[in-house]
Write a sequence for this structure.
């Protein structure tokens, strides 16, 4: 050990200045560091523990800080804190001693001495000063490299500086090479050149808020960007990486994230935090070893925000916050506003919804600081949605303030542009947006599943998803004109008859649909057509036992009803038995109740509602409503019909229109032609004959076989075999007997 030799950093000097380090200018700092080094040398002659790597005399954290400050020239508080944490991890992983040698010489020299069993090591001369694009001095960066990158000995200090610059200036290489994302030159390399770029060179250590403002204004001159790209192309993942790169370039940058809903916004923010959160201090990611001063622990701060540890201006807003299109973001200023899929088919169903999203966007843009940026990633939903509106605004503005690009999943060859989409082959494709993920086979499968959705979400076409469906519109003025007093409603008989319908919901939860019962009288008009008059509506949410009683009492209120059409859904078997039992108690025959499976054909409900709108708008007013306390809710639901939307399979779906649906079911009983006077007489005679047969069966059994009757003129719904059997039993068995 007598041959030990240490070449230290700096030159001996006399006493240190009295000024605090933070108040010194660069020249005074250098002088102070030289004097501190000389002082440490003198002390080391009296105690040579700093020269022995295996000295067992552990030092305190306070002493370690003094060594890092006075000998290594570490003056940044955050850098000092991080180096102490990294040193503790390194000594535990590499079985080093927490002594003066570890902090005087660093981890790499300690490992070299440990390997060679000698303290004869050479400390390289590290020239201090500023590093372009960095907020830490060269000596501070060297110390961080030394204590953080000991797991990657192949990465030297210059490569360490190069990789740090990549994280701040190149979102594509940051994602692909450092964060190990599945990024490719197409499309992510293209998007790197499209999104705004931040150059960290303009920020100096100790910058002020005014310096930040000037730096922000000097970046990309275009401030508004919109990327419209196919689904499954990782555009949201790329946007997250781009924002991580921006936060690395400027720690005091404030980003506000906005998505359609709050849960999506929180998930987006968690995606940003995940890159900075060190979940395993013994195995950090490459990104976390390159910029440990910007990383946090999982339980640091709120999970709904991200605070950059290197931020120094003390601004009120967090480095990254999340909001949504359905919440308020008043007062939260930002330098970058990023909107990611802020709209969907749910929020673009009608003009009012589309305008609401545009108004929300305009409000959010007021939160962006002067010189700030607005970026958006989205897919088309409607020719007049938020994305289309912003593009239209920019095209109409002579300055074209919005820079946008539209990236469909494929680009066709010119000669194939007029071919039907389903007839396309791979030879018709000129280029694919993301050939390693969105292959032609995958895209063709998506096309076959739903062509309309594919054109919108993969080919990025601004088309109306409901353009092929006739529009339904019930306005309040027309509905109010259709009102009439109950006393003026057509009477049952003389060709007019009553039908009952039920749109069921077997649950009564807060988010469940309601049950609607409708009494509708169908009658001929003076012009030889048929009219529907809604006599009464009962609507609400009922438990199954309550619902069974409602059905029986509703039928009892209208005993003249010729048919009671009830929608059969999952679970109605128990309800049907309960209804039958209650009908015996209340002496009501439910023989004319038809429990039918709803029509499952494509857009069946839409077509029924469309027919209702035609009846309502007919000059003869073929759809009328009687006055009642149920009218306001009924009209409110009818006016809600226009807010339909298609699901991912392309089927139209409605919500909260149970009454309108129940009324629309009555249309199945509309005769094709009005009854003539002779047919009406025949019908009345048939009804009297049927009543006599019922009385005869009740008194003497059902031995009598009626003579054949003329063929019925009026069309009625055909009964199933089970319903026919039940009707036969009803005629054979005595009243009150269960079957």
């Amino acid at each position: 050990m007598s041959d030990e030799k240490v070449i230290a950093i700096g030159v001996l000097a006399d006493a240190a200045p009295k000024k605090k380090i933070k108040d010194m200018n660069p020249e005074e700092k250098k002088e102070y560091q030289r004097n501190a080094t000389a002082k440490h040398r003198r002390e080391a002659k009296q105690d040579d523990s700093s020269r022995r790597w295996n000295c067992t005399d552990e030092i305190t954290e306070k002493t370690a800080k003094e060594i890092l400050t006075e000998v290594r020239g570490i003056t940044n508080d955050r850098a000092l804190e991080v180096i102490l944490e990294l040193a503790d991890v390194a000594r535990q992983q590499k079985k080093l001693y927490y002594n003066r040698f570890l902090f005087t010489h660093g981890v790499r020299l300690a490992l070299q001495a440990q390997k060679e069993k000698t303290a004869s090591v050479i400390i390289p001369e590290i020239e201090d000063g500023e590093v372009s694009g960095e907020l830490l001095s060269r000596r501070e960066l060297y110390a961080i490299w030394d204590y953080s990158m000991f797991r990657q000995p192949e990465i030297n200090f210059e490569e360490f500086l190069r990789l740090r610059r990549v994280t701040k200036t190149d979102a594509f290489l940051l994602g692909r090479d450092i964060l190990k994302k599945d990024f490719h030159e197409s499309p992510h390399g293209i998007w790197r050149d499209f999104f705004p770029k931040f150059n960290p060179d303009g920020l100096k250590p100790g910058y002020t808020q005014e310096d930040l403002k000037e730096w922000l204004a000097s970046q990309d001159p275009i401030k508004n960007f919109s990327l419209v790209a196919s689904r499954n192309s990782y555009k949201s993942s790329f946007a997250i990486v781009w924002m991580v790169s921006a936060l690395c370039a400027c720690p005091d940058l404030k980003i506000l994230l906005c998505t359609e809903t709050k849960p999506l916004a929180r998930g987006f923010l968690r995606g940003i935090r995940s890159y900075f959160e060190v979940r395993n201090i013994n195995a950090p990611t490459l990104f976390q070893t390159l910029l440990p001063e910007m990383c946090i622990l999982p339980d640091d701060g709120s999970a709904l925000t991200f605070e950059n540890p290197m931020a120094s201006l003390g601004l009120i807003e967090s480095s990254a916050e999340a909001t949504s299109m359905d919440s308020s973001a008043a007062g939260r200023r930002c330098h970058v506003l990023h909107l990611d899929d802020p709209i969907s088919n749910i929020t673009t169903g009608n003009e009012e919804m589309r305008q609401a999203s545009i108004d929300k966007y305009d409000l959010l843009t007021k939160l962006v600081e002067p010189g700030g940026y607005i970026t958006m990633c989205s897919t088309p939903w409607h020719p007049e949605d938020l994305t289309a509106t912003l593009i239209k605004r920019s095209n109409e503005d002579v300055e074209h303030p919005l820079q946008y690009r539209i990236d469909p999943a494929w680009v066709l060859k010119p000669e194939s542009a007029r071919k039907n989409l389903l007839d396309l082959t791979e030879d018709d494709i000129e280029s694919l947006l993301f050939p390693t993920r969105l292959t032609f086979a995958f895209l063709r499968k998506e096309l076959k599943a739903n062509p309309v959705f594919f054109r919108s979400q993969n080919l990025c076409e601004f088309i109306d998803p409901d353009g092929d469906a006739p529009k339904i519109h019930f306005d309040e003025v027309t509905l109010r004109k259709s009102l009439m007093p109950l006393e003026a409603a057509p009477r049952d008989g003389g060709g007019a008859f009553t039908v009952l319908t039920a749109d069921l919901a077997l649950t009564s939860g807060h988010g469940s649909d309601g049950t609607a019962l409708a009494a509708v009288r169908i009658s001929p008009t003076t012009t030889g057509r048929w009219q529907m008059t809604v006599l009464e509506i009962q609507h609400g949410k009922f438990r199954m036992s309550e619902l069974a009683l409602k059905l029986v009492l509703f039928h009892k209120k209208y005993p003249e009803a010729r048919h009671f059409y009830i929608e059969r859904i999952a679970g109605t078997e128990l309800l049907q038995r309960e209804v039958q039992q209650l009908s015996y108690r209340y002496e009501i025959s439910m023989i004319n109740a038809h429990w039918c499976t709803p029509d499952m054909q494509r857009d069946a409900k839409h077509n029924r509602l469309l027919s209702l709108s035609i009846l309502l708008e007919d000059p003869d007013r073929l759809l009328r409503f009687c006055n009642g306390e149920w009218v306001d809710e009924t009209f409110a639901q009818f006016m809600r019909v226009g807010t339909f939307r298609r699901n991912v399979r392309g089927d139209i779906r409605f919500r909260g229109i149970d009454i309108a649906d129940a009324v629309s079911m009555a249309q199945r009983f509309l005769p094709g032609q009005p009854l003539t006077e002779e047919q009406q007489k025949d019908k009345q005679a048939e009804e009297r004959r049927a009543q006599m047969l019922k009385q005869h069966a009740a008194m003497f059994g059902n031995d009598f076989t009626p003579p054949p009757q003329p063929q019925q003129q009026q069309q009625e719904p055909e009964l199933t075999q089970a319903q026919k059997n039940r009707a036969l039993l009803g005629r054979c068995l005595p009243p009150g007997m269960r079957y």
